[in-house]
Specification:
This protein is mostly helical and about 100 residues long. The chain has a domain of about 60 residues: Muramoyl-pentapeptide Carboxypeptidase, domain 1, CATH 1.10.101.10. The protein is built from four helices and no strands. It is globular and about 30 Å long.
Length: about 100
């Protein structure tokens, strides 16, 4: 299943604990990818999601659609669905 949710709603759900542990419990580094990021690192992420059946266009912009696909991927793969592509998500996507 796939649906889109506003960034504000995702943040609210995170605060309420509906998406697993709070993001603050995991370190965020410069190597993590998240909404608003752009550039060469984003396209391979999007291509990996596309290869796994997510309806996404690799454009190099980590927007709401990419974030929703990441959250879906994380939920389907036993990861905390926070929408942040850190080391564990990268490893599961074959990007590590």
């Amino acid at each position: 299943m796939h649906f889109e949710v506003a960034d504000e709603t995702i943040r609210k759900w995170q605060t309420q604990g509906k998406l697993g542990p709070a993001v603050a419990s995991r370190p965020v580094t410069d190597h993590n990818l998240s909404i608003g990021d752009r550039g060469a690192e984003i396209r391979p992420l999007q291509e990996a999601l596309l290869a796994r059946g997510f309806d996404i266009v690799p454009d190099g912009i980590f927007g709401a659609i990419t974030q929703a696909a990441v959250i879906d991927f994380q939920a389907e793969n036993g990861l905390a669905p926070d929408g942040i592509v850190g080391p564990r998500t990268k490893e599961r996507l074959g990007l590590a």
